[in-house]
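Human: Here is a favour to ask of a fellow structure person. Comparing notes only helps if you start from a blank page. I am asking you to supply a protein in sequence and structure-token form. Write it directly below this note and I will take it from there.

Assistant:
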Amino acid sequence: MSGACRFLSLCKASEVAEGKAIKVEKEGLILAVFKIDGEYFVTDDACTHGPGSLSEGEIEGDVVECDFHNGSFNIRTGDVVAAPCMIPLKTYKARLQNDSIEIET
């Protein structure tokens, strides 16, 4: 078994506007890709509390509010910011490689 990292290309950087998010489905993953202060962040798209899509949520600074029950998460860390959410959001290490946003898998 190799210890080498594998990177999965999600989208072009130009597809994600500053302060916005897009939903990306790749290799069985449903993800939200955010651009905050010129940096890219990737989380699971599904809220940990209900069926809300975080890529469709309201973004203020580095916090995303779920459009279903209005729970909030820190985009950078996945930490819960506001109830009713109690379970942190899964985050992925993202990098920009040749205008492509990638995550380590």
